């Protein structure tokens, strides 16, 4: 039978506020256990939450970025369940009146087309703490540093049809929240993670099949692999005439398989009700418009601008626009050089290769955008040839610069890379080279006319060895002229 | 000097009649000698009280004294006190020492008050008789075979027995007004949001309100001056100017329109109770007030509504008492579920468990609409009754309770009978309105309470009306035999 895959994603993104959603504790990552948890985060008796307005502003920003309805009245609810890392015995979240309603984003498919994925809602909630099971002699420890960190949970419609689309959706959301500056996007620290709902149905069937939920997948690659593994598992069962059990599963990346976590046959009853300690959050259109005014250019707009205004290919534009820092780096260098294509080639070539080789982010790159811009300028005005430019770039990567554009010029001088384009000077060098290599000249003259283009190669090498910064085109012209005169 | 009111002590301290240390020592020794009869204190913080008294005397000597400098009082054990045990009347918190002060505790500390300790209460403020405390029942000083009312029974008994001149208290369904009525005292529940709830251990967050139990309305005004005001730590606390409540106490009440809800004077209220309340109303008419009948047609729905909403909220508020981070933990738990079950099973008393179960049921997926949602709709109707009534009158009056203090153990077997004790008080909490109870007569030598209900943030008018009554009558001066 032919099966259709149905995938929906719930993405949890930690908001980049300085303090927690209902307390003044710091949200910084990596502190000693329980050093960033106050009485409120610990749920001690008598304490009350006070809502951090910055989290509201960030959530509204997100809603506007995905063209969503903004809830002018949003309500915090209590979701009741017992778990050791849930200090109050309930999680404060939003159920019926979320801050962000229906919206959408477009994802790019491999064939270059794009697909619209609708977002059902996005709501504010507090993160839980975490249980630590090692180092307590069979007991468990609890670290509440993360408890109360603000999250938005972004719920998609079940509109993705394969794992690649799901990964593209996750990537696009990552790109949007990092562009907005509302989430640091650090997947390794759990700043963004997603639950993948996966089901299969016979092609053409209207109703959904039974779904499973893969919890807490935390990389783009694992979203794709986990879903593919789950699709394969479900398909095996269905092809054998079996039934899928609705359950929560975990993805084991080492074994590339999903495993049952707990059964959802007996549904949890969370006994949601409006939190009486927090008033409904009421905002008006003025508030929303004020937030809208702070929106940066978003990835889609930037991609379109790169492609249309600056003539980049669709793929180049998409790659360069996907990451806010990379896009900024590219654009800064391109503006200095006044050449977007040249800058695009360099950023996707030498710059990206360097980032990959050193496993660093663009923010940690030793070559500043200003320096790259200056290098590109020098290429364009023929001061540097391509080889010289790479040499300067590599020297900067190794730390031989101070970040300033001037240090590029100093390096060009000190490394003797200034390109010689003066044909008089080049003629003298060529004459010297020819005089010093009579055998080579003889060999060249003995070469038949139609093969001479190739035989000129060794002379070019010798000339460039004698003077590094020569303009290769001028060298070629002078060599051809001199040799033809012999 | 134990028989003095807060205002009198404040004046005496200012006049140098005695020092704060002297009155503090006097009351501490009185507590030691007599509280075994009433069981009104859970914790007597003697050292801290004397230190505060000394500091107050030093402040006065330096010429920096205010009205509250060196005045003794005590807190209901529902309010967290930094470094002093806060039990909320429960085994669950029998070892809990908060590392912070409730906002109102902080306010009294900043005002220079001396706290003598923490007062007994029904467990987690659930009860109308103070028989559900883990630390034992409190006895009514008017008759120690009778209950003092709940849940602020410790506060009421301590003030009635003249162990403290005034005490903080809290009111979720009548827990200030009912014990004040049973003990012949003045109890004030302010408007919801007038006083910060920060550091007050939550029972039902949307109903809980901190207030006062004192002997006079003047003392209530003095306490409210310290307690009221905005607190950014409590989102439900209202940012609104705090008037000086003592400044308007003597205003004339000529022309005051008093509403008498016909639903509060039904035949199930005994003739003697009715008579006492009517006598009090007549006194107001003598002072120039006008009386008008009003109707609060949804009064009969207040108790069922309350017993959905309050348990629903408490079922969530008490979830944090799970034995994991603080408070009581069972011995040798086998696993996390065992730890939860036994810590909560052993740590909570019967009434608390009953309400948690009712609340969990009312909120559960299949019953939410039928119970919780419906209760919220009815709550709106009850509130509207009052809004309509206050379009016609300035203040509403009626009995505080259907009966005077009942006998210990009389109603413990029938929780619903006990719940009916709050029939006149509970609607105000659902509506968020301010209310007071003042002593207005006696039946069988037991005090009877007159309830005064005000419009939102109209505490000044309530205190004025109560004070004027106390200026022209002496019910508030009556004390239990032997005190």
From TrEMBL, chain A:
Catalytic reaction list: L-glutamyl-tRNA(Gln) + L-glutamine + ATP + H2O = L-glutaminyl-tRNA(Gln) + L-glutamate + ADP + phosphate + H(+); L-aspartyl-tRNA(Asn) + L-glutamine + ATP + H2O = L-asparaginyl-tRNA(Asn) + L-glutamate + ADP + phosphate + 2 H(+)
Superkingdom classification of source: Bacteria
EC numbers: 6.3.5.-
Keyword Translocase: no
PROSITE patterns: GATB
Keywords: ATP-binding, Ligase, Nucleotide-binding, Protein biosynthesis
Keyword Cytoplasm included in the entry's annotation: no
Domain Asn/Gln amidotransferase: 328-483
PANTHER family associated with the record: GLUTAMYL-TRNA GLN AMIDOTRANSFERASE SUBUNIT B MITOCHONDRIAL AND PROKARYOTIC PET112-RELATED (PTHR11659), GLUTAMYL-TRNA(GLN) AMIDOTRANSFERASE SUBUNIT B, MITOCHONDRIAL (PTHR11659:SF0)
HAMAP family listed in its UniProt record: GatB
Protein role: Allows the formation of correctly charged Asn-tRNA(Asn) or Gln-tRNA(Gln) through the transamidation of misacylated Asp-tRNA(Asn) or Glu-tRNA(Gln) in organisms which lack either or both of asparaginyl-tRNA or glutaminyl-tRNA synthetases. The reaction takes place in the presence of glutamine and ATP through an activated phospho-Asp-tRNA(Asn) or phospho-Glu-tRNA(Gln).
Similarity comment: family membership: Belongs to the GatB/GatE family. GatB subfamily.
Known partners and oligomeric status: Heterotrimer of A, B and C subunits.
Full protein name: Aspartyl/glutamyl-tRNA(Asn/Gln) amidotransferase subunit B
Gene name in the database record: gatB
UniProtKB/TrEMBL annotation, chain B:
Gene3D superfamilies (alphabetical): Amidase signature (AS) domain
Recorded superkingdom: Bacteria
GO MF annotations in UniProt: glutaminyl-tRNA synthase (glutamine-hydrolyzing) activity
Class of enzymatic activity (EC top level): ligase
EC number(s) given by UniProt: 6.3.5.7
Catalytic reaction(s) noted: L-glutamyl-tRNA(Gln) + L-glutamine + ATP + H2O = L-glutaminyl-tRNA(Gln) + L-glutamate + ADP + phosphate + H(+)
Xref: PROSITE patterns: AMIDASES
Signal peptide limits: none
Keyword Nucleotide-binding attributed: yes
Active site per the UniProt annotation: 76, 151, 175
Amidase domain boundaries: 22-463
Record key words, sorted: ATP-binding, Ligase, Nucleotide-binding, Protein biosynthesis
NCBIfam families in the cross-refs: gatA
Subunit details: Heterotrimer of A, B and C subunits.
Family membership: Belongs to the amidase family. GatA subfamily.
Role according to the record: Allows the formation of correctly charged Gln-tRNA(Gln) through the transamidation of misacylated Glu-tRNA(Gln) in organisms which lack glutaminyl-tRNA synthetase. The reaction takes place in the presence of glutamine and ATP through an activated gamma-phospho-Glu-tRNA(Gln).
Record's protein name: Glutamyl-tRNA(Gln) amidotransferase subunit A
Organism encoding this protein: Thalassolituus hydrocarboniclasticus
Gene that encodes it: gatA
């Amino acid at each position: 039978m032919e099966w259709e895959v149905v995938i929906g994603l719930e993405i949890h993104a930690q908001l980049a506020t300085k303090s927690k959603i209902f307390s003044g504790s710091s949200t910084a990552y990596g502190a000693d256990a329980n050093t960033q948890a106050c009485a409120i985060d610990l749920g001690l008796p008598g304490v009350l939450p006070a809502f951090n307005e910055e989290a509201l502003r960030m959530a509204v920003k997100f809603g506007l970025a995905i063209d969503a309805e903004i809830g002018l009245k949003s309500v915090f609810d209590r979701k009741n369940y017992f778990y050791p890392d849930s200090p109050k015995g309930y999680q404060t979240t939003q159920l019926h009146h979320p801050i962000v309603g229906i919206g959408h984003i477009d994802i790019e498919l491999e064939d270059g087309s794009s697909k619209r994925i609708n977002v059902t809602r996005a709501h504010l909630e507090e993160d839980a703490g975490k249980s630590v099971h090692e180092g307590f002699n069979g007991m468990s420890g609890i670290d509440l540093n993360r408890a109360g960190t603000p999250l938005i949970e972004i719920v998609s419609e079940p509109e993705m049809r394969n794992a690649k689309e799901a990964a593209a959706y996750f990537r696009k959301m990552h790109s949007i929240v990092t562009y907005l500056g509302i989430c640091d996007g650090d997947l390794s620290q759990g700043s963004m993670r997603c639950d993948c709902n996966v089901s299969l149905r016979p092609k053409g069937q209207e109703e959904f099949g039974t779904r499973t939920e893969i919890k807490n997948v935390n990389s783009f690659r694992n979203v794709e692999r986990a879903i593919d593994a789950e699709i394969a598992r479900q398909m095996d069962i269905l092809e054998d005439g079996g039934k899928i059990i609705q359950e929560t599963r975990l993805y084991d990346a080492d074994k590339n398989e999903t495993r049952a976590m707990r059964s959802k046959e007996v549904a949890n009853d969370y006994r949601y009700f409006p939190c009486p300690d927090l008033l409904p959050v009421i905002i008006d259109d003025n508030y929303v418009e004020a937030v809208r005014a702070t929106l940066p250019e978003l990835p889609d707009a930037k991609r379109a601008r790169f492609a249309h205004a600056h003539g980049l290919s669709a793929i180049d534009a998409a790659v360069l626009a996907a990451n806010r820092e990379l896009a900024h780096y590219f654009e800064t260098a391109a503006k200095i050089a006044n050449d977007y294509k040249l800058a695009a080639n360099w950023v996707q070539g030498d710059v990206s290769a360097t980032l990959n080789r050193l496993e660093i982010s663009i923010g940690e790159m030793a070559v500043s955008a200003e320096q790259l811009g200056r290098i590109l300028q020098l290429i364009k005005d023929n001061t540097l040839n391509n080889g010289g430019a790479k040499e300067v770039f590599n020297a900067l990567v190794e730390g031989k610069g101070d970040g300033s554009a001037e240090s590029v010029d100093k390096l060009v001088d000190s490394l003797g890379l200034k390109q010689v384009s003066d044909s008089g000077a080049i003629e003298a060098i060529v004459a010297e080279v020819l005089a010093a290599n009579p055998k080579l000249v003889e060999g060249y003259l003995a070469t038949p006319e139609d093969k001479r283009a190739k035989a000129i190669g060794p002379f070019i090498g010798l000339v460039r060895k004698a003077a590094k910064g020569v303009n290769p085109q001028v060298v070629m012209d002078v060599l051809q002229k001199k040799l033809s005169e012999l | 000097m134990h028989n003095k009111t807060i205002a009198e002590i404040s004046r005496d301290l200012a006049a140098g009649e005695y020092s704060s240390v002297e009155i503090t020592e006097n009351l501490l020794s009185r507590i030691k000698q007599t509280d075994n009869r009433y069981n009104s204190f859970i914790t007597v913080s003697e050292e801290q009280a004397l230190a505060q008294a000394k500091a107050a005397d030093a402040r006065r000597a330096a010429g920096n004294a205010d009205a509250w400098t060196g005045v003794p009082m005590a807190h209901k054990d529902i309010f967290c006190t930094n470094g002093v045990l806060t039990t909320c009347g429960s085994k669950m918190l029998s070892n809990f020492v908060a590392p912070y002060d409730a906002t109102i505790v902080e306010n009294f500390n900043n005002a220079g008050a001396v706290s003598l300790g923490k007062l007994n209460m029904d467990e987690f403020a659930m009860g109308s008789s103070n028989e559900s405390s883990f630390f034992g029942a409190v006895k009514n000083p008017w008759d120690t075979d009778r209950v003092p009312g709940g849940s602020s029974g410790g506060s009421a008994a301590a003030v009635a027995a003249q162990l403290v001149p005034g005490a903080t208290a809290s009111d979720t369904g009548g827990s200030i007004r009912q014990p004040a009525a049973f003990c012949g005292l003045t109890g004030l529940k302010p408007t919801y949001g007038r006083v910060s709830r920060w550091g007050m251990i939550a029972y039902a967050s949307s109903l809980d309100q901190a207030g006062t139990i004192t002997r006079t309305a003047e003392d209530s005004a003095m306490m409210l001056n310290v307690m009221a005001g905005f607190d950014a730590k409590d989102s439900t606390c209202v940012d609104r100017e705090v008037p000086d409540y003592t400044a308007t106490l003597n205003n004339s009440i000529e022309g005051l329109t008093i509403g008498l809800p016909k639903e509060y004077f039904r035949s199930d209220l005994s003739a003697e109770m009715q008579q006492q309340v009517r006598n009090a109303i007549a006194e107001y008419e003598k002072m120039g007030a006008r009386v008008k009948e009003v109707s609060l047609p949804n009064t009969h729905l207040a108790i069922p509504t309350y017993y959905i909403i309050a348990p629903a909220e408490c079922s969530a508020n008490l979830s944090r008492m799970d034995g994991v981070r603080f408070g009581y933990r069972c011995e040798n738990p086998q696993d996390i579920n065992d730890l939860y079950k036994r810590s909560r099973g052993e740590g909570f008393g019967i009434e608390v468990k009953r309400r948690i179960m009712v609340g969990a049921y009312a909120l559960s997926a299949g019953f939410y609409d039928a119970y919780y949602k419906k209760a919220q709709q009815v709550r709106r109707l009850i509130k509207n009754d009052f809004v309509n009534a206050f379009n016609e009158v300035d203040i509403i009056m009626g009995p505080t309770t259907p009966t005077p203090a009942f006998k210990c153990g009389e109603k413990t077997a029938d929780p619903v009978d006990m719940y009916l004790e709050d029939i006149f008080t509970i609607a105000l909490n659902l509506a968020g309105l301010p209310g007071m109870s003042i002593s207005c007569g006696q039946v069988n030598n037991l005090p009877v309470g007159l309830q005064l209900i005000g419009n939102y943030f109209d505490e000044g008018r309530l205190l004025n009306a109560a004070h004027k009554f106390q200026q022209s009558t002496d019910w508030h001066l009556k004390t239990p035999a032997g005190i």
